Amino acid sequence: MLTTGAILAAAFFYIALLFSIAYFGDRCADAGRSIISNPTIYALSMAVYCTAWTFYGSVGRAVETGVGFLPTYIGPTLVAVLGLTVLKKIIRIGRIHHITSIADFITSRYGKSALLGSVVTIIAVLGIVPYISLQLKAVSTSFLVFSHFPGPTGVLGNMQTPFSFLGDTAFYAALILAVFSILFGTRHLDVTERHEGLVAAIAFESVVKLAAFLAVGIFVTWGVFEGFDDIIRKASNSENLQRLFTIDRRPGMYANWSMGIFLSMLAFLCLPRQFQVAVVENVDEEHLNRAMWLFPLYLLLINLFVLPIALGGEILFQGKSVEADTYVLSLPLLLQQKTLAIFVFIGGISAATGMVIVETVALSTMICNDLVMPVLLRLPRFRSERGDVSRLIMTIRRSSIVLVLLMGYIYLQLVGEFYQLVSIGLVSFAAVAQFAPSILIGIFWKGGSRRGALWGLLSGFGVWAYTLVIPSLVQTGVITDHYLFLRPYPLFGMGVLDPISHAVFWSLLANSGIYLVVSLFSRPDSIEQAQANLFVDVFAYPDRLFERPRLWRGTASVPDLISLLKRFLGEKRTRKAMAQYAWRNGTDWHQKAAADAGFVSYSEKLLAGAIGSASARVLVSSVVKEEALGIEEVLDILEETRQAIAHSQKLERLTRKLERANEQLKELDRLKDEFLSTVTHELRTPLTAIRSLAEILHDNPDVGYEQHRQFTGIITRESERLSRLITNVLDFQKIQTGNMVWHFERLQFADLIDEALGSLDPLIRSRQIRVERHFQETIPDIRGDRDRLIQVMVNLLSNAVKFCDPLQGWIGVTLAATPQGIKVVVADNGRGVLTQEKEEIFKDFRQISDERGGKPAGTGLGLSITRKIVRYHGGEIWVEESPQQGAAFVFLLPYSPRLNK
Amino acid sequence: MDSNRTHSLKVLKRSRLVCLFICGYLLFSFPLITIFDRPLFPAGIPLLYLYLFLVWGLLIGAVYLVIRSRRPETTADAPRSQVS
Fold this sequence. Notes:
The structure holds two protein chains of two kinds. By secondary structure, chain A is mainly alpha-helical. Chain B is an all-alpha fold.
């Protein structure tokens, strides 16, 4: 039907489009405009997670195990939900330490050991190569399906035709991918460099593959059938398809299901390409916020139509030998939808190429930085040489890309043909999941040590190889299992789980178990501990601390460091980086011969961005005469900083409190001054009166009897007033300092009021004030201090006398029992209390400001003392409007007070 | 003061997300999943698929809402109108 030429043309057109997008992206980055600095693009680039495995393999998996294709996508969804706790921490660490790859991350966490880095790299390469070959297989298979459909013997038959290099699509695919990765993944060597063009192309590919898959899904569901329910109704007629709707028909499937979710959670965090897009290429931490829901949404959408396509394929291809892995493509072909078929073909290419490109770039960085560089740095000739080696590094990276793709291709030719897409991918997942204990435990637990990580990784990888690789080799006939002492599957006879879950369980058990045990029994050196602290507490310290660390002591010459940088970064980039440093720190290079700690660590980070942290450390320490910094000192410095921050926050709080207290004190001081002048004034008035009257009496012995009597009367009253004033001041002082002695006894409050009224009787009479008493019949006794409570009543009543209407004075006294205690109201018909003064009048030394005539009477202490006494009894006093327009003082006293100072 | 509030909001968001993660993990795993693992077809769709995609969608929606929340929902520290 479709000519091979048309397909090739479409493919080449698409590849050309990708190249131009990547080229455009790089151009923009060079011009200083980032087109990938966008949360949506970040989320889309994360969708590099969905490879040909998703695009073609999910349907195959669904035909075999029903919902079994879903755990792979549910796991990353759950990890995305945890984004702020786990991913953000990894991203922050990656940014601060200039992490270039997952191997670099683990190396850096465990004291920058080159050995650990190379182990991680080897595991990653061995684990990922089959995965890459899976993508190549998908590309070549889809091409074959296209060009031979409908082949006489189905698809598989054609794959086994005698094989030649030049006629093989997979070979060309590998070639084109190598060129792309080299062009856009290894442009130049720099610390802050991100592969902007590459990420832009990946994000674009994510859109294409999703659109293509949705197009097939919609076409099959509504174009061929009449909706979801129609497909499912037709499928339920077949006994064979009914089993796909539930899990439990097969033994051990729940365990496999949960294990699948668990495995994909770990793999999502540990796959080199995911690390590359999520951590290394991350422009802004805030982008994570959108990715946390957008990326899971992407996963949900791309899985929505897997079941309809799988069932539709099973129904339409019944009896024909068409592999379920190709349904996505062969369904449109069967139904003569050429345009759709080409679109799907392009979508499949997107899914495969996106993965291969990012994965090879990530692996080449790891191979170069963590495998080749440490070896090169051991060669004395290389170390003593002074030439520019950035070109050499680029060559190493480019060769690594070619090497990885070549390995993928060879693997495909050797064993790849025997397996389904998904099972190859899951084997790779299980391999990279071995990094999880070192990373996840390592960023939350400071105790994890280099030895623990190393032995954990080695044993986990060993168990992985033994339980997954060896059985597959036996199956393909490469080796026979006669030599095996222990059966690899099921290991120790645990056959409930499927081979993948089985291998995941045993390898991770060995891995994390040995990691923990060895960590607990080994003593980490100082750099290990320092790195552990920096990783685990990455959020505890401000970024400044990481940028200009003091965690170094030693001497180095600036020219030495500069020549080192020039060797690895090239002349131009070194000069740029130094200018940047000088600008930020105000350094004058001409004046400076000895490098300070800041510049040494800056250089190390620059180098780490180019060649990985382990190699950078080796290089820098070769030119620095370093004095070993004890772990105690490192910890001291960190602790000091942390405390300084905590202290400054505490200080701020204290300062605020002090300021408030100071305000209050000033106010109090002002009031005290006022009080003193009031009291002095109040004392002086009666004193002056007494003295002048006494003088008159003394100087004029012949004043009449009547006048004599009048004068001595005044003198008596004035002295009474004086002594009352003094008593008030003393009382106030006593209460204030807590020296008051209280005598509590049972009281009948009505008697008490009458007593107070009695003592004021002459005054009331003299002013012709009408007093109304409203006492409830039975008032329970209360407990209280008799004298003080009388003082309260006298204070309130004499206030009422003072302020009630001068001509037609009226005072109402009410006593009632309430559930809370007794309630007493003393009301008058005076001028009342202004709303804004209702609280003020109870304060010490406050008098009602008197704009309405007359000077304030009293000391300003009466009500304050009254309130203190009432409160001491556990009660409360306030002022209301009186029915007769004046003020009504109301107080409540509980029956038996919980003493309340 | 302000930095304190954003800090506590961050902590709150993080705790809410951890809570969502735990809920999601439980809903997707054995044994809760067995409740829906039956050959039933509400609206013509297998119950298990319906359940899984529904939980998935709701989880995404919940994450979206938590991420979008700008201030804590508690009104405890919101200024109240002054009524004496």
